[in-house]
Amino acid sequence: MTATHPRRRKTVALATAAVLAGLTTPALTATPAAATTTAYDTTYYKNAVGKTGTSLKSSLHTIISSQTKLSYSALWEALKVTDQDPANSNNVKLLYSGISRSKSLNGGDVGDWNREHVWAISHGDLTTSTGPGTDLHHIRPEDVQVNGIRGNKDFDDGGSAFTNSGGSLTDSNSFEPRDAVKGDVARMVFYMIVRYEGGDGWADLEGNDSVSNGGNPYMGRLTVLKQWNDEDPPDAFEERRNQVIYDTYQKNRNPFIDHPEWVEAIW
């Protein structure tokens, strides 16, 4: 999502043209997310503000672990609210493809949208029992066939386009979301890493730099996800979604939408 927000700025280091023989132009790099403040810093996040590293991660885990849990079937109606297309209230906006599709076309047939787990449920055997496999903070509507193409692949740069890709790419072992939602994907993965640490009967989810995690409770590539968080800061759609989940459904927040700079502070 490329729209800017008054509390955040998206900057990259500018490459200087090479004017002398033998001078190499530096590659563009993402600038770490700028510090932010929110209305929740003195209440919801009061025990986390000012911390870094493992101390921050531990505090956020405690904060966001207090949540109302949804059943897998309840996600259908919830997604129609959390992912409503701002331009058409009859539709939802699909994550990877960017398509606006009728809310009524939810199901498993070609042309339908279904429930995409950004943290693939096979990575740690999350299943669709009430728990991490039904956590709205990482579940988004997506075209049935696009969902199948993503499968359980880890995230990385590179690949080829496909039908209804919307700019997303894939290859044999990884998936790259379209530019407008790269940061969204990253922040959902970081939420899952912090929320699920193995203490509630589910796997301890962690990030790494692999794209061959298979059924292991890991998601990669961590370095790429960090870059996506910086390149694509939260916009109004992502912030509204976070608020709706907090107010109406789970009563917990994704802290990396409120404070994207906390990604760098932890990792």
Automatic annotation (TrEMBL):
The keyword Hydrolase applies. InterPro entries: Endonuclease-I (IPR007346), His-Me_finger_sf (IPR044925), TAT_signal (IPR006311). Keywords: Hydrolase, Nuclease, Signal. Residues 1-29 form the signal peptide. SUPFAM superfamilies: His-Me finger endonucleases. Pfam families: Endonuclease_1. One of its GO terms (molecular function) is nuclease activity. It is an enzyme of class 3 (hydrolase). Its EC number is 3.1.-.-. This is Extracellular ribonuclease. It comes from Streptomyces glaucescens.
